[in-house]
Structure formats: C-alpha cells, structure tokens
Amino acid sequence: MNIKSLISVFKQHTLLKITSLNSVVIVIKLFISVFIQNLLAETIGASGLAKVGQIRNLLGILNSTASLGVFNGVVKYTSELKENKLLLKKMFSTTFIFVLIGTCISSILLIVFSNTIATYLFESSDYVFVIRLLTTVVPAIALNRLFSGVLNGLSDYKKYAKIELYSYVLSSILLVSFLFQYNLEGVLFAIVLTPVLQLLVIVFVFGKTLRDYIKISKLEFNNPYSRALLVFMVMSLVSSVLANVVEIDIRTQISVKIGSDEAGNWTAMLFLSKNYMVFASGLFTLYVIPKFARINTKNEFKTEVLHIYLTLLPLFGIGMILIYLFRNFIIHIIYPNFEFMEPLFKWQLLGDFIKLASLVVAHQFLAKKMVVSFVVTEIISLVLFYGFSLVLVESYGAEGVVIAHFVRYVFYFFMVVFVIWFSFKNKKLNTPNL
Questions:
Q1: What is the pTM of this model?
Q2: By the 8 A CB rule, do 205 and 166 touch?
C-alpha cells in the first residue's frame, strides 16, 4: 500500500482521526502534567496529594449533581437530532430546567453542610473556605457539562481538542501560580476555579456553534424529554456520584488505617491512570455513544465493537506496556520519594486495560437508555471494588486497592458482555429509542 492509499484510508477512518488528534492533545497534556505532578509531589508531599484527590472527587460528584446528570443524554439526543432544530429546541429547553434545579440543590447543600463536608474530606474544618468558594462555581460546572454534551454530540472533535488543550494550559498556569503564592491552600483554590476557566474557553471556541443550536430566548419546558433525560440522570448519579464517594471513602480508610502518605501514593497512581484514561474517555463521548445510538441490530453492534477493539486496544496496550516497563523512571521523574507506589503499577494497568474493553461495550447502556442494566451492573461493580478494597487493604496496604480494581473489572467485563448478549437475544435493542 502506497503513501496516498494510507492517507486516503486515514481520512475515511473517523475513529483513527479522532484518536490521532486526541493523542496530540494528550501528549501535550502529559508533558505539562509531568511538570505539575512533580511540582506538587515536591511541594505538598503525599499527604497533600491525598487532599487534592479528595477535592477532585468532590468536583466529580458536582459534575453530575449540578447538571442532574444530563451530559450523556445531551450527547445522545444532539447526535440523533442535530438535523432537527425543532426537536433539539425542545430537548435543550428541558435540559436547562434540569441544570437550574441541579445547580440550586448542589449550591444549597454545599452552603448548609460546608463544615461537615470539609471535615469528611480533610479530617478537619480548616479547609471549609474551599467548600464555600465551590458554591459560587456550581453554575459554571453545570453549564460546562451541558455545553460539552452538545460538543460531543456533534462529534466536533477538532474544537473538542482545542478546548481540552486551552483549558488544561490555562488551569495549569493558574495552579502553579497559586501554589507558589499559597501552597496547598492555593492548589485547592485553583482546582475549584478551574471550571470557570473551562467555561470561558468553551464559550470562546464553541460559542458561535452553541448559539446556532441553543436559542435561550425560545426555551420552554417539554415534558416528553424530561422523562427521557431522567433516565440519564439516574445513570449518572449511580456511576459518577457513587464512584467518587467510594474513592473518597477508600482514601479516608487508607489514611486512617495506614497513613496519609500511603493514601497519597494511591492518589498519585490514580492521577497517572486518569491522565492516560482521558485518552479513551474523549473517544467514548465523541464517537462511541453517537455511533451506538444509531445502531439497532446485533450484527452492526458486533462489527462496530470489533472495529473499536482492533483500532483502540492495541494502541492502548502498547502504551500500558511502556508505562509498566518505565515505571521506576516515571516515579523518579514525576513523583520523587514515592518509590512505595511502584507495586501499584501492575494491578492498576491490568485493571485499566480490562476497564477500557468493558466500557466500550457498556456504553451501549447509555446509547440505548438501558437504565436497569446500567444501574445494576454499576452498583455490583462498585460494591465489589469497595468490598475487596476494605478486605485487601488490611493485608496489602494501598496495593490491595489496585488489586481490588483489577478483580472488579474482570467481573464487570463478563457481566456487561452477558447482559448485552442477553438483551440482543431477546431483541430488546433491535428497535430505536426516543
């Protein structure tokens, strides 16, 4: 095959185009992340990283509660209805009502329980100011999720890449400047303000397109879409909120039973994991959900899953092998004096590879609104992770948590494949959904 043929194949291969562009952004972000994580490790230490992990998990919870979990619903319906402006207007009208309700509830809870939340996260009320500041940022978090859902639903991966890169660079500059001025408190402060920067970037890069699709002056509440979006709300609250609560509690258990430094080692491993898993998460919302939403037969689904596996898993697998081989170098460069996190790499990487394979198939639950299947499999998965973590941490310390992570996704993969296979067998997925 000559060069022209390869270029032609590449241009027609949407997943490869998204993957390659996403890879460029991820590589740039990784270089910045290496510098940031090294600086944090040297400046605030393992116990400080554990606190950073807690506030990031709280933001993860607010991503769902502030928008009432409509993100995946917006992705699905924007993808399906982008040529029908009338139905899109009805969907967005209902979405804004959800966002308004979620924002109000989240802000009120943060204000009323700010001391309790601060004590639970940081084992002290010293950082209550961070929670109170977060109250003012909740509207930005909610609008971020809504506008990002539109961007992903339109599969505008070039603008998505720009937004990801600009947001990351600006938030990194903010974090470093606040770190030098206010130490750990400044880092937490910068993380809380990051959603505001992200919203400004989205409006700057994507504003014109948003105005074309969302006519705020013409919005009105539409009941049919309220029922449809409620399904995604339930899914999001189960997956995102519960997952972040479980992470927070496990980190707290490690701190109490072993020490905050060990909790910091696990948090450092999670940061690395989330950095390379971002590579896949963008593909799920930009490509997988919109694609699965338009597939209604078993054979089409099998073909598309195989296509994604053959494209994505080899690239991901090679990357993970390289990370494992150079793990000691990575620790030395990014996390000096964190040598005790070395045993965590093997289990975290194995678990993440199986997680990726599982999530490709599991996104059918979101694309086809299989709410019961999604909720049941997700809860079983979280219970397994939490249960195994509490048992294994007694004997293996933080390594027990990553072993639990691996075991969890082995069970989850077979569970999801069985549920999808059974659903197709009973022809539950062979008809389009609203």
A1: 0.81
A2: yes
**From residue 155, how far is each of 64, 76, 152, 352 by CA, in Å?**
21, 11, 5, 25
| pLDDT for 206 beyond 90 | no
- Determine the Cα–Cα distance for residues 23 and 319; give it in Å rounded to an integer: 11
| All residues at 6 or more sequence positions from 255 whose CB lies less than 8 Å from its CB, including other chains | 50, 123, 262, 263
**Structure tokens, 148:** 């990002």
**Cα gap 204→165, rounded to integer Å:** 13
Mean per-residue pLDDT, 230-236: 80
Burial (CB count within 10 angstroms: exposed 0-12, middle 13-18, buried 19+), residue 241: middle
What sign does the CA torsion over 412, 72, 56, 106 have?
A: negative
Nearest Cα neighbor of 264 from 357, 340, 199, 198 is 340
Separation of alpha carbons 96 and 100, rounded Å: 6
Joined tokens for residue 367: 């694309």
Question: What helix, strand, coil percent values describe the chain, rounded to 5?
Answer: 90, 0, 10
Tens of pLDDT, residue by residue over 37-49, are 889 988 998 889 9
288 DSSP 8-state letter: I
How many percent of the chain have pLDDT more than 70?
86
Which residue from 305, 311, 280, 310 is spatially nearest to 292, judged by alpha carbons? 305
| pLDDT above 90: residue 280 | no
Residue type, 425: K
Calpha distance 29→255 (Å, rounded): 29
| CA-closest candidate to residue 142, choices 193, 71, 211, 202 | 71
Task: Tell me if 30 sits within 8 A of 286, measured CB to CB.
Answer: no
Instruction: Give the span between the Cα atoms of 262 and 247, in whole angstroms.
Output: 14
User: If you ran DSSP here, which 8-state letter would residue 295 be given?
Assistant: -
